[in-house]
Amino acid sequence: MEKVDRPLGPVVVDIAGTSLTDEEVKILQNPMVGMVILFTRNYENREQLHNLTHDIHSLRNPSLLIGVDHEGGRIQRFREEFTKIPSARSLGQLYDTDPQRAHNLTAACGLVMASELRACGVDFTFAPCLDLDYGQSAVIGNRAFHRNPRVVSILATAMVSGMAQAGMACCGKHFPGHGYATADSHVELPVDDRPLTDIRTNDEVPYASMGTLLTSVMPAHVTYPQVSPAPAGFSKKWLQEELRGRLGYNGLIFSDDLSMKGASEVGEITARSDAALAAGCDMILICNDPESAKTVLENQRWIRTKAFDERVARIQPRGKFPSWDGLKLSQNYLACVKQIEAFNAEIAEKADKTATL
């Protein structure tokens, strides 16, 4: 495959399988593409994943970014041969009884998660989830650390610090908060009809607390009718006035997946991509819909800015990273894995006891 010199663009796309097809190579060399997002279907084992990421990185100079949704709990795309990362909620529950251990363990999760991904050539993961655990959103559920925004801030900061030790940036999601709305934005448009004051004093707190630690943010496909008629990811009110204006955020903004049902009310795929970029998103995700991705790549009009390039630079991985064999020589990594495995064993033991009652 011939490498082409081409700066990164604003579109995030996926691929079908465990290796690249000739058609996908052409798509990934399109100047509008800036990142490839991987899913479980793209993974067989670590060796295959490493070969795939090597092939993707070999297509462009600078290399395309490679991302994944890999948070822990039920959102962990690669499982076999990877450390099992506990759910955010389990870490939040631990915080209620042992705050110091929860903080240390969450940092360990961030380091192990990012280290293992980077050892396989993955540059970035869309984590952590900053939504509050109101106990009513099925799509968020145990992805949230806690109901208390202060605890969410503390544990998310710990996770981000662990990721940073491995040279990986982060993504806080789903701004301003997806935890209160009950509907699943993958299949319908959720509505959160609380006033802005409630959202500011609860859901926005982690974003305000973490500030510049957040190298990127992803808004929710949720409508907050008391604030703006458009879903947050298509709303200048949310992205320009609230996130960048009031909170002073200057990092990169990803859209959530524009193929999701929660985005469909904005219009067809080109209208969605236009609206997301116009509202203030820097990069837009189009997943599990290759025809829509092609349509956007063919029709999207976009002007590169200095701010875009600076924000993309902040989500690049930092420093060279060892192979998996090299990672196994790191005493810090091994100690963190040991902490996580001990906690997973405790959770499993509790589950077994509950099942036998």
From TrEMBL:
The record's GO CC annotations read: cytoplasm
**Where found?**
Cytoplasm
Q: Does the keyword Cell division apply?
A: yes
To which pathway does this protein belong? Cell wall biogenesis; peptidoglycan recycling
Provide a GO biological process annotation: peptidoglycan biosynthetic process
The domain of life is Bacteria
| Active-site residues, Swiss-Prot/TrEMBL | 186 (proton donor/acceptor), 256 (nucleophile)
Provide this UniProt record's keywords sorted from A to Z: Cell cycle, Cell division, Cell shape, Cell wall biogenesis/degradation, Cytoplasm, Glycosidase, Hydrolase, Peptidoglycan synthesis
Keyword Secreted in annotation: no
Q: Which residues bind substrate?
A: 69, 77, 143, 173-174
Where does the entry annotate site (Important for catalytic activity)?
184
Question: What EC number(s) does the entry state?
Answer: 3.2.1.52
Tell me which residues make up the Glycoside hydrolase family 3 N-terminal domain.
19-316
Q: Which InterPro entries does the protein's record reference?
A: Beta_hexosaminidase_bac, GH, Glyco_hydro_3_N, Glyco_hydro_3_N_sf, NagZ_Beta-hexosaminidase
Any one GO molecular function term: beta-N-acetylhexosaminidase activity
Q: What does this protein do?
A: Plays a role in peptidoglycan recycling by cleaving the terminal beta-1,4-linked N-acetylglucosamine (GlcNAc) from peptide-linked peptidoglycan fragments, giving rise to free GlcNAc, anhydro-N-acetylmuramic acid and anhydro-N-acetylmuramic acid-linked peptides.
Q: Which family does it belong to?
A: Belongs to the glycosyl hydrolase 3 family. NagZ subfamily.
Name used for this protein in its record:
Beta-hexosaminidase
What organism, scientifically named, is this protein from?
A: Parasutterella excrementihominis YIT 11859
The encoding gene: nagZ
